[in-house]
Amino acid sequence: MDALRHLQDELSEMERAGLLRTPPAAPASDRLLVLCSNDYLGYAGLALPSEVGTASGAGASRLVSGTHEAHLMAERELAAWLSVEATLLFSSGYAANVGTVAALARPGDVVVSDALNHASLIDGCRLSGATVEVVGHVDVEAVEGALVRARGARRRWVVTESLFSMDGDTPDLPRLRELCDRHDAALIVDEAHALGVFGPRGAGLCAEAGVRPDVLIGTLGKSLGLHGAFVAGSSTLRTYLWNRARSFVYSTGISPVVALAAVERVRRAAADDPARARLTMITRRLRSGLLALGAELLPGSSGPILPWLLKSPGAAVEMSRRLASEGVLVQAIRPPTVPAGTSRLRIVANASLSESDVERALAGFREAMR
């Protein structure tokens, strides 16, 4: 008997609903314009350092023998960039979010979580054992109500993204900070999509708003063009996560080569106001061009993430297919990644696009919409 025979039935049902995902072919860089990556500053194509003596692999968990000088250098550079006491590198953004939230919140706590938080934050909330109150997207009044109801909880946590990865909008960070202070709650902010793009020296939307979260989570895999992630905050937070974040404790450390590259990328991003200005210009041109073509861009979206709502999964997949035939790569985003009825194309600007690239992309959109 085939104990996994039910899997094909479930896959067939997903296909009928237009929700089956299949591995895409690697894009041919000379043929396709890629408008769906998170490489906001165009750093992903940069070469890694080739310094002699830098190990390619950590060899073990950071707690065992996997800590190399490159890790410590990267953590110091990240801390200086974000003006915090300390940072801790994780193997991925998913590992950072899951491990941090699950380690900090406990049974008896209440976690107030935005309805559109990333899956990694949602999973961290679930694994924590805390009571999770999901509130409406960027609804500050709902957050306040949840905190009032949680007065008797052991501890209170508010978890949000600073730039939401699928909707491209941002919460009222100063108001969230004020509510957390008033209700003795800790503020956890995932800045994955904002770092490098917004704020002084690219230090993110919290820095731009003058807000200091209790826990800031960032990634090396978006604007810095690498892989891995980190948590930033106090030295006490770093020590606690070193001991209690299971996704850190039980994972091999990230490659020392990548950690060394992060030192250079952080310095580059911090000084790269020209790339940020170019990204803003390209984003504006794409946005205005798409709106002129009649694309239904999500209200409230800002920055380089441009969500084009197409309602049904089938419509999103079909438009993605048409765009690919016009030389533009934009993947369809469907449930469960986004709520039912909000399937979309997640169009993303990046600073490496030329003016002719943008015009070519808009021409491709025009043809695909016919």
UniProtKB/TrEMBL annotation:
<dbReference type="GO" id="GO:0008710">
    <property type="term" value="F:8-amino-7-oxononanoate synthase activity"/>
</dbReference>
<dbReference type="Pfam" id="PF00155">
    <property type="entry name" value="Aminotran_1_2"/>
</dbReference>
<dbReference type="GO" id="GO:0009102">
    <property type="term" value="P:biotin biosynthetic process"/>
</dbReference>
<comment type="subunit">
    <text>Homodimer.</text>
</comment>
<comment type="similarity">
    <text>Belongs to the class-II pyridoxal-phosphate-dependent aminotransferase family. BioF subfamily.</text>
</comment>
<protein>
    <recommendedName>
        <fullName>8-amino-7-oxononanoate synthase</fullName>
        <ecNumber>2.3.1.47</ecNumber>
    </recommendedName>
</protein>
<keyword id="KW-0093">Biotin biosynthesis</keyword>
<dbReference type="GO" id="GO:0030170">
    <property type="term" value="F:pyridoxal phosphate binding"/>
</dbReference>
<dbReference type="InterPro" id="IPR001917">
    <property type="entry name" value="Aminotrans_II_pyridoxalP_BS"/>
</dbReference>
<dbReference type="InterPro" id="IPR015424">
    <property type="entry name" value="PyrdxlP-dep_Trfase"/>
</dbReference>
<keyword id="KW-0012">Acyltransferase</keyword>
<feature type="domain" description="Aminotransferase class I/classII large">
    <location>
        <begin position="32"/>
        <end position="363"/>
    </location>
</feature>
<dbReference type="InterPro" id="IPR015421">
    <property type="entry name" value="PyrdxlP-dep_Trfase_major"/>
</dbReference>
<dbReference type="InterPro" id="IPR004839">
    <property type="entry name" value="Aminotransferase_I/II_large"/>
</dbReference>
<keyword id="KW-0663">Pyridoxal phosphate</keyword>
<dbReference type="InterPro" id="IPR050087">
    <property type="entry name" value="AON_synthase_class-II"/>
</dbReference>
<dbReference type="InterPro" id="IPR015422">
    <property type="entry name" value="PyrdxlP-dep_Trfase_small"/>
</dbReference>
<keyword id="KW-0808">Transferase</keyword>
<comment type="pathway">
    <text>Cofactor biosynthesis; biotin biosynthesis.</text>
</comment>
